[in-house]
């Protein structure tokens, strides 16, 4: 029976009698006689039926324990593909651990059985299995096909949302070049690593910008997210934030550009021509920040090495309508965590910030004599000419100097200078800025040696004269002061004089690197401040005519490397706070969903990461506050800090230390456990620049360099003030650490974001090699975990993980309903009221002894059915039991069919044996009769000797004659075969020749078609021009032609003989004069339609008159018939009928035939004595006249309508 089911395409998983080790091909090839009847996944029954029942009960318990039934399509963990599809065969609960056997598709024709440990322990007392982590996930029906997975644009609508479902949908959609997918409020953007021009074209942007304000964008796209933010400030008047996150190379920077491009062009109708100067400047700020803040990394050629939060400020046009679309009037950029450490060192294969290589490329171009206008005319390149990237220590360490093949960095430098000029940085200011940037590179070339007289001191190397002079020239300071600031340290004890002490070579190198880092950071801060001063719309906000802003957050995603330091802790803590806020937003969305559906829920079901946030940022015991405290202690060290952390968080499950690696600790973030090395935490957290270096740069002769360090006393750890005698006095600044400043910035950022309406975009990198059309499933799953998408799914589905539409849930579980519940359910289904049916069904499950569904594990909303995991397991177990019962019924019926077939076969075999016996007896009797007949023939042999001799002669002659005839027939057959062969050969040669001729004709036709198409297009152009001329001439002839058509139609019906030859239709009487004049004088399609309507109304009136005449004719015919009956002839006929019977008068009393469509009572009244035949004829004539008038009116109306339609079509053309 199961082999038959397989051949018919029926599901065999619900039939537990099939052996679990057979593949689908083996099932199809198994004969019925070889198919055993046994329990699912169990060996054949060796004993009584009771043993088979016990085995089946064991399989039932196993299936119920796992929450899945055999035959369910599931996802199985896989080392190579992360998750693989499979079909659950059985669950073994005999051991202490639950093991599921799954039939897995191995990406090919072969099938294999895989055992999956469900990590659940069996209780020895009650035999039940404890709850376990989900190692198997059921598959969604819609994701089983390639087309279904590609058509799912919002994964939040799936009934079962989990990690393999998200991975499968993203994989299929990526192969179809669909890079955007919604997951509830989150937009997942997979970087395609290739150009998709149609996806970001101006036409695409306009299609989103021109959508009606009350219409939601159904297509997942980054423009849809930007449009939602734009609608938020326009329609609801609330602040908006677009949070873009992802790892390096995932496309965060490009996504931010697309958002800013849409918001800058949304108010202009999607055209760049209508953009204002401020809107252009906002877009021009992007290349400036990229040049100074982006760099090439191992994962991305244009990786942002800082976080930014850009507030795009909107306002309405001055003097415009209050309902007009808002326009971008300014922007303000907040930056976070600039990777200043990249200035002094990079990994192999990475580069420093772009601005260094762009300036060197521009200098090389100018040296070659092909300088651009931006560099030659307005900006003086100082400290760059004659140098290459290999000449600088800060650039040569990574041995990577080119960004990518084909990239013109000199042209990018020109773009950067043009953008700086638009922000007011031009001429000398631009030269000073670039000089400070190049001073950073020259500082890296400074080398220190120990003096011969002091091994603990440091001095500049003797061969460093040119390097020192270039640095001092660019910074505009004295060489001696710079050397003293780097090689010596000034100290002053209370009440004592100033003491100058030498520093070691290592400390001098650290001071040099610190100066380079802070100098570049100051330049970057200056550019960001200048950009904000230029494009920020502070004036409009003061006047109160500005709208809420749209913030765009582009920040690092979760990071963990082989060696993780303070920077990774800051980045991961930022992502923890963003994930906490993300969970809160998801929580709010779920709250709104449950409120909208009218479902009660328990908020304690939702997880959060508040404990991890508290671990890092708690006021006294947090990791960062304790780090600040350790930095404030004299003689504090990383080892002491780690020991304090261990004592404070020894019982915290999210904190751990590694005993064999002292100084390292582990924090369990939401995305995974990360190990941090604490050796350099204190130095990086202090980030101190020597007071001597600050004083040296404050005394620079260059105004630009002085301005960079004038307002940074607190940042650099010291501050100066004037005492009563106006003498400069240094004093200690407030306690400052990088962690405290970072926490303050992060606190302000989160407060800013929490006051806005969020929109989340998660950028995903499909593969580590940046290769197009390659989807690395393991890498994508890791990013989904690190970016909190999977945790967001866990949060959203923690209350009721399974959600079904009313119809889907009712049709899925209707087979479990019994008794009165089943009858009521079927009645509601017949009325298509699935909401009431769902209520009846699940309320019936509460009292059903087979289901025993708990009240708080399910809920029926207004559109959805919500089920908790416990309810899913209970219903799955009951559904499996019902299916197993049905399968057993099918098996019992099939066994009956098998036994009945066996009985029929045995009966047929017995009948065959009986027939064989009777045949044997008959054959024996026949043999005896043949012997008797032979004896009789022998007796007459002698008498027949002569006859036989004559017969022999005759047979000999007959044989010769037969041989001759057969030879003649054979020769004739041979001749026919030869003739047929010749004809076949002739036909084949003719066919081959025709095929060759046909091919030549086809080629000739293709050439002729191409030539005719070429000439036809030319002729078409000429005809189109002629058609335009004819159209203009036709419009002039339209009026006269319409008049002639009306006259022709009316004249045709005037000349028609409508009264049987006795006269013509009176045109005036039927109303043609007014309609004809209206048709003739109509100038527009509307007038033509009005005239046509008048003719139609005339037609309806004539039809009514015709119908009245028909009724009157029928009435008079009946009266005429009655009169004829009482005439002398009529009375004689009735007398004859009574005498001779009804056959003599069957034609006498028959009423006269009534013709269709007639009237004519006026003629009968005028000629009362005329016969009935005459009255009928005249009535028929009047009806024909009325019908002719109706036909004429209908024809005129149709002509007028056709003319109006032709005129409307001509105008449309």
Structural account:
This protein has 1213 residues and is α+β, with helices and mostly antiparallel strands. A 7-stranded mixed β-sheet has the order 6-7-23-8-17-11-12, with helices on both faces. A 5-stranded antiparallel β-sheet has the order 4-3-2-1-5. Strands 18-19-20 form a 3-stranded antiparallel β-sheet, with helices on one face. α8 packs antiparallel against α9. β19 and β20 form a beta hairpin. It has 39 helices and 26 strands. The N terminus is likely disordered.
Report the major sheet.
7 strands, mixed
> Largest sheet, order of strands side by side?
6-7-23-8-17-11-12
By DSSP, the count of extended strands is: 26
Query: What is the global morphology?
Result: extended
- Mean pLDDT over all positions: 77
End-to-end distance: 68 Å
Helicity level: 40-55%
Q: Number of DSSP helices?
A: 39
Strand content: 5-15%
Unreliably modeled segments: 1-66, 120-133, 370-377, 539-544, 714-728, 730-734, 1057-1071, 1144-1150, 1152-1173
Radius of gyration: 49 Å
Secondary structure class reads alpha+beta
In short:
By secondary structure, this protein is an alpha+beta fold.
Question: Which tags fit this structure?
Answer:
about 10% strand, about 1200 residues, alpha+beta, about 55% helix
List the helices and strands and how they pair.
Layout: H1 2-7, H2 24-29, H3 49-66, E1 73-78, E2 82-92, E3 97-105, E4 111-121, E5 137-138, H4 146-150, H5 163-175, E6 180-183, E7 186-190, H6 202-209, H7 222-236, E8 240-245, H8 252-266, H9 277-293, E9 294-295, E10 303-304, E11 307-315, E12 327-336, H10 354-367, H11 373-378, H12 393-396, H13 409-422, H14 428-443, E13 448-449, E14 459-460, H15 465-475, H16 479-487, E15 488-492, E16 498-502, H17 505-535, H18 538-543, E17 550-554, H19 566-597, H20 610-617, H21 623-632, H22 638-648, E18 655-657, E19 664-669, E20 672-677, H23 681-686, H24 691-698, H25 703-710, H26 713-716, E21 718-722, E22 728-732, H27 738-754, E23 757-764, H28 777-786, H29 789-796, E24 802-805, H30 806-813, H31 819-830, H32 834-847, E25 858-860, E26 864-867, H33 869-939, H34 945-1054, H35 1072-1081, H36 1085-1125, H37 1128-1140, H38 1161-1166, H39 1172-1212
Parallel strand pairs: 7-23, 8-17, 8-23
Antiparallel strand pairs: 1-2, 1-5, 2-3, 3-4, 6-7, 9-10, 11-12, 11-17, 13-14, 15-16, 18-19, 19-20, 21-22, 24-26, 25-26
Helix pairs in contact: 3-33, 7-8, 8-9, 9-13, 9-17, 10-13, 14-15, 14-17, 16-24, 19-20, 19-27, 19-29, 21-22, 30-32, 31-32, 34-35, 34-39, 35-36, 36-39
């Amino acid at each position: 029976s199961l082999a038959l089911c397989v051949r018919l395409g029926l599901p065999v998983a619900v039939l537990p009698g099939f052996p679990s080790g057979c593949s689908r091909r083996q099932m199809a090839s198994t004969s019925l006689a070889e198919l055993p009847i046994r329990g699912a996944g169990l060996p054949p029954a060796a004993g009584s039926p009771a043993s088979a029942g016990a085995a089946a009960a064991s399989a039932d318990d196993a299936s119920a324990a796992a929450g899945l039934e055999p035959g369910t399509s599931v996802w199985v963990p896989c080392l190579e593909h992360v998750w693989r599809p499979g079909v659950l065969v059985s669950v073994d609960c005999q051991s202490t651990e639950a093991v599921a056997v799954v039939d897995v598709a191995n990406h090919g024709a072969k099938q294999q059985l895989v055992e999956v440990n469900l990590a659940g322990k069996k209780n020895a007392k009650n035999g039940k299995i404890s709850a376990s982590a989900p190692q198997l996930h059921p598959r969604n029906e819609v994701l089983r096909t390639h087309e279904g997975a590609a058509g799912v644009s919002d994964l939040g609508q799936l009934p079962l949302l989990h990690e393999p479902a998200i991975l499968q949908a993203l994989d299929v959609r990526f192969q179809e070049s669909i890079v955007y997918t919604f997951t509830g409020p989150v937009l997942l953007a997979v970087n395609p690593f290739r150009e998709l021009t149609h996806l970001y074209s101006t036409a695409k942007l306009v299609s989103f910008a021109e959508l009606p304000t009350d219409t939601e964008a159904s297509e997942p796209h980054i423009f849809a997210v930007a449009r939602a933010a734009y609608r938020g400030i326009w329609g609801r008047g609330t602040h908006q934030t677009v949070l873009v996150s992802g790892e390096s190379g995932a496309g965060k920077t490009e996504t931010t550009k697309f958002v800013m491009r849409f918001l800058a062009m949304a108010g202009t109708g999607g055209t760049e021509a209508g953009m204002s100067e401020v809107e252009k400047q906002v877009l021009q700020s992007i290349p400036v920040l990229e040049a100074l803040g982006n760099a090439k990394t191992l994962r991305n050629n244009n990786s942002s090495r800082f976080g930014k939060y850009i507030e795009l400020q909107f306002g309405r046009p001055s003097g415009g309508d209050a309902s007009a679309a808002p326009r971008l009037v300014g922007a303000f950029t907040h930056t976070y965590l600039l990777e200043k450490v990249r200035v002094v060192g990079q990994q192999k294969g990475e580069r420093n910030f772009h601005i260094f290589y762009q300036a060197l490329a521009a200098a090389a171009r100018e040296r070659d004599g092909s300088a651009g206008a931006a560099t030659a005319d307005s900006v003086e390149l100082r400290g760059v000419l004659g140098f290459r990237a290999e000449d600088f220590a800060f650039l040569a360490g990574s041995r990577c100097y080119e960004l990518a093949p084909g990239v013109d960095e000199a042209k990018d430098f020109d773009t950067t200078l043009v953008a700086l000029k638009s922000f007011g940085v031009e001429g000398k200011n631009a030269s000073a800025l670039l000089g400070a940037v190049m001073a950073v590179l020259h500082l890296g070339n400074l080398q220190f040696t120990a003096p011969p007289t002091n091994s603990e001191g440091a001095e500049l190397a003797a061969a460093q004269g040119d390097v020192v002079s270039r640095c001092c020239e660019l910074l505009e300071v004295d060489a001696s002061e710079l050397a003293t600031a780097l090689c010596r340290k000034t100290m002053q004890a209370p009440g004592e004089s100033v003491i100058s002490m030498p520093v070691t070579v290592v400390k001098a190198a650290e001071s040099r690197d610190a100066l380079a880092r802070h100098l570049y950071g100051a330049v970057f801060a200056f550019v960001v401040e200048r950009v904000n001063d230029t494009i920020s719309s502070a004036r409009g906000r003061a006047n109160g005519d500005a709208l809420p802003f749209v913030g765009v957050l582009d920040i690092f995603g979760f990071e963990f490397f082989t060696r993780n330091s303070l920077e990774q802790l800051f980045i991961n803590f930022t992502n923890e706070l963003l994930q906490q806020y993300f969970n809160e937003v998801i929580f709010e969305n779920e709250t709104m969903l449950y409120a909208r559906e009218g479902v009660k829920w328990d908020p304690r079901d939702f997880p959060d990461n508040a404990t991890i946030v508290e671990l890092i940022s708690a006021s006294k015991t947090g990791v960062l506050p304790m780090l600040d405290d350790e930095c404030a202690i004299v003689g504090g060290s990383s080892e002491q800090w780690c020991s304090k952390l261990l004592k404070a968080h020894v019982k915290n499950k999210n904190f751990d230390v590694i005993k064999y690696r002292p100084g390292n600790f582990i924090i369990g973030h939401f995305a995974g456990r990360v190990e941090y090395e604490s050796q350099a935490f204190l130095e990086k957290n202090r980030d101190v620049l020597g007071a001597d270096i600050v004083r040296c740069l404050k005394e620079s002769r260059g105004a630009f360099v002085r301005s960079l360090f004038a307002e940074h006393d607190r940042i650099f750890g010291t501050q100066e003030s004037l005492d009563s005698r106006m003498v400069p006095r240094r004093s200690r600044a407030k306690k400052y650490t990088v962690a405290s400043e970072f926490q303050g910035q992060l606190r302000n950022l989160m407060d800013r974001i929490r006051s806005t309406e969020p929109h989340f975009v998660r950028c995903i990198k499909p593969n580590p090699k940046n290769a197009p059309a390659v989807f690395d499933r393991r890498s994508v799953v890791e990013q989904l975990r690190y970016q909190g998408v999977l945790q967001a799914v866990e949060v959203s589905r923690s209350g009721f993980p399974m959600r079904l539409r009313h119809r889907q849930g009712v049709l899925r579980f209707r087979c479990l309903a019994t008794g009165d519940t089943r009858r009521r359910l079927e009645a509601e289904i017949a009325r298509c009221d699935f909401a009431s049916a769902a209520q009846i069904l699940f309320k019936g499950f509460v009292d059903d002894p087979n289901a025993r569904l708990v009240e708080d594990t399910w809920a029926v909303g207004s559109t959805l059915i919500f089920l908790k995991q416990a309810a899913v397991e209970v219903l799955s177990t009951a559904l499996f039991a019902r299916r197993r019962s049905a399968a057993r019924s099918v098996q019992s019926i099939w066994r009956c069919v098998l036994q009945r077939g066996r009985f029929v076969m045995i009966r047929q075999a017995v009948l065959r044996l009986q027939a064989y016996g009777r045949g044997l007896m008959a054959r024996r009797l026949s043999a005896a009769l043949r012997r008797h007949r032979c004896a009789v023939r022998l007796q007459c042999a002698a008498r027949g000797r002569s006859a036989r001799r004559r017969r022999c002669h005759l047979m000999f002659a007959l044989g010769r004659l037969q041989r001759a005839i057969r030879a003649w027939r054979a020769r004739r057959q041979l001749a026919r075969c030869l003739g047929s062969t010749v004809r076949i050969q002739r036909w084949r040669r003719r066919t081959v020749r025709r095929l060759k001729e046909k091919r030549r004709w086809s080629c000739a036709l293709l050439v002729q078609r191409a030539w005719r198409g070429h000439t036809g297009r030319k002729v078409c152009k000429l005809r189109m021009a002629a058609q335009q001329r004819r159209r203009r001439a036709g419009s002039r002839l339209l009026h006269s032609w319409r008049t002639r058509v009306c006259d022709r139609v009316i004249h045709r019906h005037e000349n028609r003989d409508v009264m049987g030859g006795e006269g013509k239709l009176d045109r005036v009487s039927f109303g043609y004069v007014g309609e004809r004049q209206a048709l003739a004088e109509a100038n527009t399609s509307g007038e033509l339609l009005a005239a046509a309507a008048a003719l139609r109304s005339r037609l309806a009136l004539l039809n009514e008159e015709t119908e009245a005449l028909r009724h009157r004719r029928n009435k008079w015919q009946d009266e005429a018939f009655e009169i004829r009956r009482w005439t002398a002839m009529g009375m004689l006929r009735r007398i004859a009928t009574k005498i001779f019977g009804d056959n003599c008068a069957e034609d006498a009393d028959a009423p006269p035939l009534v013709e269709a469509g007639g009237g004519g009572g006026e003629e009968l009244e005028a000629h009362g004595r005329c016969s009935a035949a005459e009255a009928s004829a005249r009535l028929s004539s009047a009806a024909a006249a009325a019908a002719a008038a109706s036909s004429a009116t209908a024809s005129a109306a149709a002509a007028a309508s056709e003319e109006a339609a032709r005129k409307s079509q001509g105008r449309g053309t």
